[in-house]
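Predict structure. Chain length: 269.
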Amino acid sequence: MRLLALTASASLCAALSAAGVASATTVPTAVPATAPAAAPAAVPVSAGTAPGKVAYGFAWADGKGVLRVTPAKATLVKEHGILRYKLKAVPGAKEVRLDYTKSAYRRLTVACDLVETEGRVALDAKGLGKTTCTPADLAFTLQRGPAAIKVEYAGTKAVKVSEFLTDWGTPKSAFGTIKRVNDTTVTFKGIKLGYTHAIGFYRVTATCSSGWLTGKPVNASQDGLGQKPCTAADFTRVLKAQKHPVLVKADYNPLSGELIEVWEVYGDA
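Prediction complete.
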């Protein structure tokens, strides 16, 4: 396991209606790596916080009943008969933190309690989830990691949260310093990243519970990288004890804002 509101023009709605977008669509088991079959519209995005604002992006849990999302540019496309959005980071976009406890939640799965789509999705004519669910269902979704959403909000309150299909971007690998923000969030090279229970964490120390770079580097590779597999709980615990940023090698996804794997670094590697 692991802004301006969207305004679809009349021509877009007609095109989508003619395409016969169904409420429950079968997802292809394999999608060939070809160019999009059609590109219905580009969706303008605003990062403001006035009433009636909209943000597209990857939402992360940020406390009980609260999500955070950094607005991205969203473009609606149609690939192999399925509507989805292409997301692109917006330089300088400000993170939005919203209370979703009274929001409407629309899933793209055909039932609220499904973890995966199981090959079928429920999408409206704008490529947004249409299965009516609750804020508790949204909390369940966010517990498992980031979710691609459109969120309509007023001030600091989410009014409606809708899932959509998207590509998750390309992970990067780099050396840099990492610093704890909270039990599920860090900053790495100045980028705010979230992580889940599925994070890979590799240590140079003898045990997973050892302090950072303590003892002999019995689990260091020839290039100084940790080789001992440890858990997300170990990662959280060891970072809590650090007063200053520490050097790591990390694999991360800058688009979704996810920290995927972390290697403790020994010496000058």
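Summary: The longest helix spans residues 10-18.
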